Amino acid sequence: MAQAQGLGRRYIKAFFKGFFVAVPVTVTFLDRVACVARVEGASMQVFLEISFVYQEIKRCLFTDNSKPSLNPGGREASDVVLLNHWSIRNYDVQRGDIVSLVSSVSFWRSIPFATYTWCLNVVCLFLLRSPRNPEQKIIKRVIALEGDIIKTIGYKKKYVKVPHGHIWVEGDHHGHSFDSNAFGPVSLGLLHARATHILWPPQRWQKLQPMLPPERKPLHREQE
Amino acid sequence: MLRNALGKAFRFLGYTVQYGCIAHCAFEYLGGIVVCSGPSMEPTIQNSDIVFSESLSRHFYCIRKGDIVIVKSPNDPKSNICKRVIGLEGDKVCTSNPSDFLKSHSYVPKGHVWLEGDNLRNSTDSRCYGPVPYGLIRGRICLKIVFSTKMNGTIFV
Predict the structure, then answer these.
(1) What does UniProt list as catalytic (chain B) (predicted)?
(2) Do A106 and B17 touch (CB under 8 A)?
(3) In this structure, is residue B73 part of a structural domain?
């Protein structure tokens, strides 16, 4: 009896010791180093042609020109991406990077633009997410950095000079994207992570290279 | 001898990582001590005052009008600014300077807050750089630590 009690107490002690080590380390790792997330929405889809045959030809002939888009399969097959927090700890982004941002617009229902839901989650994040006002993250491509002058698509001003400490982001799928063309330049402080790899589905396993679409190059670059 | 030293080094590294992670979780999800500098929040918060900021309100979306918040600077993500929330999303705020004759008003957009320092004459705030996204808020200041010669006390701000 005494032995069982001693064992139980030891077990509880070991459990709490493990808990207070494992939880902070895991939370810090997922916040500061890397995490995994599933992409939802269509704004990072390259515009899909109707004919399947054309798609196949395009894939065979134009693979070096095709943009590494996310979610070409639509709702049925969401891409799972690796988000790297460590690489943007100094807010060092390049034009063409795919980044995730904290959305500056709060919303309750999901709207058809690229957001992502947490795939691997931790207790704290589950508890602290308020159902009234979920702070959503959006995945977009960086088009312009501070000081660049770019031509916008559907923004209130035709030409915009990106202010200091801000970036201009756009989804690859211009018609279906809620991006800087809707809400303007985004402050660098809202930068959350850089999407570096597509992890799932296995046939789409690839490293995401920073690639700026040639028609979206800035008109004037302040920094090279 | 070498194994002993290596063992000690690894244990030390392990403890450092563990306590570093606990500190990160505490600062990120609970709160921490902040030293404020600058004259923009006088007389509420003087230059080099020590304050305690809590992060729970930010995660539970309980930031109210009149709260003093620590925010990542919109123009420089590596620095923080400390201002008072004057308007939440949807509120009507006065965007003109106090010295202007004709006042102009605007509505704070969704997902943003309007910040102003208490020392209106000497403060760069939303009147300069516009409404600030809610996602930049880092924490809400709840206590100011005041040391006096007679007693150690804290006052609620």
Answers:
(1) 40, 83
(2) no
(3) yes
